[in-house]
Specification:
Strand order of the largest sheet: 3-2-1-4-5-6
Number of strands: 6
Order of helices and strands: HEHHEHEHEHEHEH
Helix content: 25-40%
Oligomer: single chain
Largest sheet: 6 strands, parallel
Length: 223
């Protein structure tokens, strides 16, 4: 008989493993990509205090990026028809119901609003790469690394990270700048990203890196 999993112990194990997992490392030309920090996803019944903290941290990240000329790209879900959504979201109730074009909930949250010089890329599913102009924009900007912020960590952020990794882009997910009202899914996704697709980094090291004008964050130890 298989022993029952101690989920508290498993969570502790995963956090330890994430901290020591080998890092992919940074690129030479990063861009900050903010995923779906729209009113539809930052102001709903299930958000907690972590949402405000993530928005405030992302505002710091964006200020630091803009100050040194690192491109800022906002991904936003905008639908011309609710039928444009993937099947699972059409079948189940979903926050994406607030993403019809013209709905004020599609607006980027004012805490991290787009500024002159930023880029805005519309999408219709979780990944920022699916049938969008993101890949072409990154190529035009000669970007080799995306620094990720946004919501939700286990949904649109993770999907974008995975698709970026498939394109051999370096991925740096800034933990304090991502939000998810599903805490268990978030922790699993952070481990997934660190283990398979890119790096989970801190806001402090990213701000220090940007301020120094250096491309890299320190590589971690090999697990």
């Amino acid at each position: 008989m298989t022993a029952e999993i101690d989920w508290n112990a498993e969570m502790a194990r995963v956090r330890t493993a994430r901290a020591v997992r080998t890092r992919v490392g940074p690129g030479r030309n990063p861009a900050v990509v903010v995923v779906d920090f729209q009113v539809a996803f930052t102001r709903h019944a299930e958000i907690g205090p972590g949402t405000a903290r993530s928005l405030a941290s992302t505002a710091q990240l964006l200020d630091a990026a803009r100050a040194v000329g690192i491109p800022v790209i906002h991904l936003v879900m905008v639908l011309d028809d609710l039928g444009d959504r993937m099947l699972a979201q059409r079948v189940r109730s979903s926050l994406t119901e607030g993403c019809l074009r013209g709905d004020p909930r599609t607006a980027i949250d004012p805490a991290v609003g787009a500024q002159p010089g930023d880029h805005v890329v519309e999408k219709t599913v979780a990944s920022g790469f699916f049938r969008t102009r993101l890949e072409g924009l990154l190529a035009e900007l000669e970007v080799d690394e995306i620094v990720l912020a946004g919501t939700s960590t286990s949904g649109c952020v993770r999907a974008t990270a995975v698709d970026a990794a498939y394109r051999s882009l370096r991925v740096s997910l800034v933990e304090e700048c991502c939000d998810d009202f599903r805490p268990l899914s978030e922790q699993a996704s952070l481990w997934d990203v660190q283990d398979r697709f890119g790096d989970v980094v801190t806001l402090t090291e990213t701000l220090d890196r940007f301020a120094a004008g250096a491309p890299g964050h320190r590589a971690g130890a090999t697990a």
